Amino acid sequence: MEELTSTQSHLLAMAQAITALDAAGSQFTSDALAPGHAAYFAWLTERATQTLSRLQIQAADALQRSGSHQLDTESLDALTEVGTDPSDEQLIALHGHCTLGRAAYKDAADLHSGWLGIPHGAAVARLNAAGSLIATVTESGQRTEPNCRHLANKFTDQSTDPRPLISAARAICKATPDLSTPKARQELEMQALELIKAEDATSASKHLNALITEQIQAQRPAAALFAEAGLFSRGMQRGLMVYLLKVFPHEAEFIESLRAKTNNPNTIAGNRVLLNELTQANYAAANQPGADPTDPTDPLETAVASEPDGPSKTAPQPPSAPRIPKEWGDAPTMPQWAREAQATEPDAPKTPEPSIDPVVEPTALPPFEDLSPALRHMTALLAVLRANRVGSKDSGAALVAPQVIVHLNYEKMLAGAQSFATTENGLPLTAAAARTLMCNAGIYPAVLNGKSQPLDIGRSKRLFPPHMKRALAARDRGCIYPGCHMPASRCEADHVDPWEEGGETRVDRGALLCPMHHHARHAGLFTLIVADGKPPAVLLPKFLDPDQQPRRNTHWFSADEVLAA
Fold first, then answer.
1. How far apart are CA 249 and CA 447, in angstroms?
2. N or C end of the chain: which has fewer CB within 10 A?
């Protein structure tokens, strides 16, 4: 019997691995697993997912360069019949033959979707990723260098999770037509590798997309930006009016601040009592039986009315019969509804028959806190718009008050850098946009110098005063636990060195933590450390970070700030 080649042996191993994985999954589902075994099962499954992500790209490359889409019908039938339990003889016979006539599939993407059942868009994405991370394939089947050479070198490392690399390659290749030079793409690759190395996958992807956007936006003239900015109506869709809003980053911070403060139940910026009354008044009417959606009554004025003896509401009157126009003097010229109305018009009022329709109670709306975030944001925005109407008598302006804070890098600003400012909610600003904001009243600049921490009140007070919390917010931007998305406005100031053990209330020995991670830290689930004069960082347990590297959350930072750190 002919011996299996190396390729055939590896194909057999993959087929056997699939069978083994299926058997293991069935067994684990039926067995009562110990907690440690269940955790290891989940870890192995995730590790297998990483391997499969790499194999998908490698398989796409193999289909492309081998011309598998030209296989004849007999070869494709033989492949399908073998399945995941091939014999040695079947593997040897699976070499396949390409047809000289018309093939079943026109290209590798068509083979993916038509035979493997993969959506065409996903198939094209895999093939593009293969060209970026393994090799590009010409129409004649010749292989050339990958499009993303730096990412490709890392992709070959079997110990690396390939998914962030695949995501980065797709983002960079998608932006390539808009990049000015090949050097710009190479710089993005190197920055992507730095972000992937230092950050979790979600943060790395966020910062890379910001870098790409910044590169593209820098090349666009102001006229092009003004041509696209604005508020656009998309009409009625499924009972709701849809609007598209495109604004400049320095204007967007007003909306981002509004969203952040509306989500924060701990600040007076979100007056929960009035917001809840506004919600009930604004939307409860829509749940009333027979409600008129065109009723011009302003729900805000009803919600915030403070006079106890305000005008009373009259009970709704039943609709009167339609008036019959004088032009219809005779029955033949009347429409059907008019003839019916005239025929039933009584000389004296009749006793109405009891209604047999069931009484429909209005649906009670949930409190403001239980609404979806998007609906809360819309309610707050409408409150601000109503409060700023000419002649408005309500106090809606007190419901939500956006506050814009801009973080300025003092050293970069003096050096004349193109970008030295970031808003509190993480929006990067160009130098021109930052100067524009600084000219407006109500903007709070927070000037930072990473080398000095001048605010220090020692042990005179245990709790961090407001001015120190603002300094912590300017430095940390939010909870410093890696991957946490809680903004600074909803975090608590914590001492790196416990107060009861002699710790001092100082900015350089303080850190922002959200309530959940604050409790987790004091429960011993992770550690705060300060090293080499740097800001406080998180030291995760070994099972999360075997390398034991100090880490800080960068979700609210700009990509430039992350790379500089």
1. 19
2. N
The residue that leads in pLDDT, 239 or 512, is 512
Handedness of CA 294, 296, 302, 303 (dihedral sign): positive
User: From CA 426, how far away is CA 474, in angstroms rounded?
Assistant: 11
- 194 exposure class (CB count in 10 Å sphere: 0-12, 13-18, 19+): middle
Q: Between 305 and 421, whose confidence is greater?
A: 421
Q: How far, rounded to the nearest angstrom, does the alpha carbon of residue 331 sit from its chain's CA centroid?
A: 65
- Asked if 89 and 130 touch (Cβ cutoff 8 Å), the reply is no
Report yes or no: 106 and 30 within 8 Å, Cβ to Cβ.
no
Residues 134, 62: Cα–Cα separation, whole Å? 10
CA separation for the pair 433, 229 (Å, rounded): 15
Instruction: Bin 449: left if φ > 0, else alpha if -120 < ψ < 50, else beta.
Output: beta
In angstroms, what CA-CA distances link 182 with 176, 214, 220, 353? 8, 16, 18, 82
**How far is Cα 140 from Cα 124, in angstroms, rounded to an integer?**
18
Token pair, residue 368, equals 């403001």
**Among 122-126, 292-296, 418-422, 432-436, the least confident range:** 292-296
**Helix (H/G/I), strand (E/B), else coil: 101:** coil
Nearest to 86, CA basis, from 15, 1, 6:
15
146, amino acid identity = P
Tokens (6 digits) for 30 = 């039926």
Q: Minimal CA–CA distance to 269: which of 377, 368, 382, 403?
A: 403
As to burial, measured by CB atoms within 10 angstroms (0-12 exposed, 13-18 middle, 19+ buried), residue 137 is buried
Residue 528 neighbours by CB distance under 10 Å: 20
pLDDT band at 405 (very low <50, low <70, confident <90, very high): confident
Percent of the chain with pLDDT over 70: 68
Rama region for 295: left / alpha / beta (φ>0; ψ in -120 to 50; rest): beta
User: Distance between CA 222 and CA 212 in Å, rounded?
Assistant: 18
- What percent of the residues of the chain are helix, what percent strand, and what percent coil, each to the nearest 5? 50, 10, 40
User: pLDDT for 442-487, tens place per residue?
Assistant: 555 555 544 433 334 444 566 788 888 888 888 898 999 998 988 8
Q: How far apart are CA 327 and CA 438, in angstroms?
A: 68
Q: Name residue, tokens 């809606």.
A: 396
pLDDT digits (tens, 9 = 90+) for 290-323: 444 444 444 444 444 443 444 444 444 444 444 5
Q: What is the three-class DSSP state of 421?
A: strand
